[in-house]
Design a protein that fits this description.
This is HAD family phosphatase. One of its GO terms (cellular component) is cytosol. InterPro entries: HAD-like_sf, HAD_sf. GO terms for molecular function: magnesium ion binding; phosphatase activity. This protein is an alpha/beta fold. It folds into 2 domains: 12-84 and 207-287, HAD superfamily/HAD-like (Rossmann fold), CATH 3.40.50; 89-203, Hypothetical Protein, Haloacid Dehalogenase-like Hydrolase, Chain: A, domain 2. The protein is built from 11 helices and 14 strands. The strands form 2 sheets. An 8-stranded mixed β-sheet has the order 5-4-3-2-1-12-13-14, with helices on both faces. It has a 6-stranded mixed β-sheet with strand order 8-7-6-9-11-10, with helices on both faces. Strand 3 and strand 4 form a beta hairpin. Helix 1 runs parallel beside helix 10 (270-277) and helix 4 packs antiparallel against helix 5 (137-148). 45% of the residues are buried.
Amino acid sequence: MPSAPSTTDRRLIFLDFDGTLAEHGVIPPGHRETVRAARAAGHRIFLCTGRPWSMVTPDVRAQFDGIVAAAGGYVVIDGQVLLDLRYPDDLAAKALAWLDRHDSAYLLEAPDALYGPPGIDRRVVEIMTRPGQPRDERHQDTSDDILSVLRMQDDLSGVSFGKITCFDSQRSMAELCEHLGPEVLLLPTSVPDLGEASGELQLTAVHKAVGMGVVVDHLGATVDEVIAAGDGRNDQEMLEYAGVAIAVAGSNPDLLAVADHVMPGPRDDGLTVVFTELGLLAPAAQTGP
């Protein structure tokens, strides 16, 4: 297991958002202070999220040295876009034709907005609240986050996007993934219990470690300087890439297997616990006044 860095080390720290940094889309006050203290100690902190840039609010962006968004496909540091990967036009057209043919409730995730067909706002809310659907705070939070940046239009053929999220369809997302071929990878959505007709479809060549690598190269750093924390399926490559990997307790076994450290979840100020253990916080933040 890698040794804990001393307070004189300067690390690049990549944090997943949902389930790691934030609980139901809200960053606990303790985690906000921990990020601030780690930056004050000289570390550079990056949000590394599956959410598109359009769903990362200005308030959240301001708390970090940079953002790796869209599951690694979109990277911004100091206002400069370093990476912006989108679906090729022919693959996008093939996906949209299939989704529309099977009456799918879907969103196209782009840096400027979420795009969907007319009525998708109503369908998302109905799916989240339909009879038999577990009452989970994540469902309401997801609906609210989507509606705040949603644009609906009849013709989506001109939309350039990096990822597709589908909430329901007449056919399974595995069928769509097979239809599109090896360029596309299917992952479960961050909202539980939506079934086989839901999922996130991202380009196979895009994952969080891709965006992290762009940051590391841009800053002239090395992988040994990288710390990463996550809890989801789309965090696997992220943790495998990092010099020090941190998984949230209760994550899937594959993620836990590559973790050097396991931290509590955001409800228990997990980042504060593990950052303190690793010596990442300024002395005042660790010892008090």
